């Protein structure tokens, strides 16, 4: 960097120095995009280009950008229920009507595709799929993802695939990226480093156009997407500069250790939940870091619903659990198992004591 003194004791950066900083920012961004394109291409039947990747400040910004560029007057978007609440907030901010389709707990939280098709019309811009599931802890099969892509093709809409928990699968179903089906229907994939690499504070995410047929690569769409990303800004330059080293040199043993820890924690949850009469788990967790369980309010006294349950549980036992209503399901609760096993066991013992104390 070219730093000089102005004669008055103040250091100033020359034009050359400023240009050097700007070029450094561009190099960090481009190298990060290249590394992410190569990393994400490993699981696809085609090769992504760096221009298919847009680096964002976490996955939340990727959600906001994707909904903003797809929004149009009178448009609507199809969101899963239960789902991640940020989608509804971003849609409302962009005047997109939200239409919720159900996930089926008795079928490992698969999409109810028949009801989804009835919700769509000529103003539907996209549907959102979260896989591995948040808040449900499910992992979709190749077959079901193919069915989702074929449904999107019939409806003529884009699939927004939220894969922030990508590869965090520890059950019978391996993780399959929705981008595998990009030749059937255009896919916008959203992801982040926060979960798989366990660095949530870094705020580095991505938006990727998985579209081998070029539906999302019209000059107008690409220009709009680029301009929106420029307006929003992105992650800090030094974080972007670290991306190539992180994605290329992280050892497989690190990922396997994370998977083993999550699998062990999920099994602890299932074992403890089976000991509580008023809570049932229709679908065992197979991925991500949380899952949904159902409350039987009729077995509890002085508890009116899931919100009342969670409020009194926090007050009496100092255990915080998210009420299902927050993610779209009344009288369910979301349990996070990304916790130290000893703390998880203690917390669920407290939940058990609470339920016994309030049992009818």
From TrEMBL:
Which protein family is named in the record?
Belongs to the class-I pyridoxal-phosphate-dependent aminotransferase family.
What the entry lists under PANTHER family is as follows: TYROSINE AMINOTRANSFERASE (PTHR45744:SF2)
The molecule here is called: Aminotransferase class I/classII large domain-containing protein
Cofactors, names only? pyridoxal 5'-phosphate
All copies of the Aminotransferase class I/classII large domain together span 24-351
* Superkingdom, natural source: Eukaryota
Question: What Gene3D superfamilies does the annotation carry?
Answer: Aspartate Aminotransferase, domain 1, Type I PLP-dependent aspartate aminotransferase-like (Major domain)
InterPro entries registered for this protein in UniProt: Aminotransferase_I/II_large (IPR004839), NHTrfase_class1_PyrdxlP-BS (IPR004838), PyrdxlP-dep_Trfase (IPR015424), PyrdxlP-dep_Trfase_major (IPR015421), PyrdxlP-dep_Trfase_small (IPR015422), TyrNic_aminoTrfase (IPR005958)
Give yes or no: UniProt keyword DNA repair: no
Question: Pfam families of this UniProt entry?
Answer: Aminotran_1_2
- Quote the PROSITE patterns the UniProt record gives: AA_TRANSFER_CLASS_1
Key words of the record: Aminotransferase, Pyridoxal phosphate, Transferase
């Amino acid at each position: 960097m070219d730093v000089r003194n102005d004669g008055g004791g103040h250091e100033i950066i020359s034009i050359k120095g400023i240009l050097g900083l700007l070029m450094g920012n561009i190099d960090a961004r481009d190298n990060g995009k290249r590394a992410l394109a190569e990393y994400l291409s490993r699981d696809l039947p085609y090769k992504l280009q760096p221009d298919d990747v847009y680096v964002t400040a976490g996955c939340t910004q990727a959600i906001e950008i994707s909904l903003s560029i797809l929004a149009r007057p009178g448009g609507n978007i199809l969101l899963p229920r239960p789902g991640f609440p940020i989608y509804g907030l971003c849609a409302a901010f962009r005047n997109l009507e939200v239409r919720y389709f159900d996930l089926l707990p008795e079928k490992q939280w698969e999409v109810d595709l028949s009801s989804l098709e009835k919700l769509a019309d000529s103003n539907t811009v996209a549907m959102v799929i979260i896989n591995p599931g948040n808040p449900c802890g499910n992992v979709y099969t190749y077959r079901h993802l193919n069915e989702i892509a074929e449904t999107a093709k019939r409806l003529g809409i884009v699939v927004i695939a939220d894969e922030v928990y990508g590869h965090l699968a520890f059950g019978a179903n391996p993780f399959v990226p929705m981008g595998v089906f990009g030749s059937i229907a255009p896919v916008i994939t959203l992801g982040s480093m926060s979960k798989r690499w366990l660095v949530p504070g870094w705020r580095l995410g991505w938006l990727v156009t998985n579209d081998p047929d070029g539906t999302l690569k019209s000059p107008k769409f690409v220009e709009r997407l680029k301009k929106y990303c420029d307006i929003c800004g992105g992650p800090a330059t030094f974080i972007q500069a670290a991306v190539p080293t992180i994605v290329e040199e992280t050892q497989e043993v690190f990922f396997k250790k994370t998977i083993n820890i999550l699998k062990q924690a999920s099994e602890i949850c299932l074992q403890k939940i089976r000991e509580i009469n008023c809570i049932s788990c229709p679908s065992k967790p197979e991925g991500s870091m949380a899952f949904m369980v159902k409350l039987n309010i009729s077995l509890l006294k002085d508890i009116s619903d899931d919100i009342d349950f969670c409020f009194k549980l926090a007050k009496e036992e100092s255990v915080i659990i998210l009420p299902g209503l927050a993610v779209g399901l009344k009288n369910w609760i979301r349990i996070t198992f990304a916790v130290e096993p000893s703390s998880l066991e203690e917390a669920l013992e407290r939940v058990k004591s609470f339920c016994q104390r309030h049992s009818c």
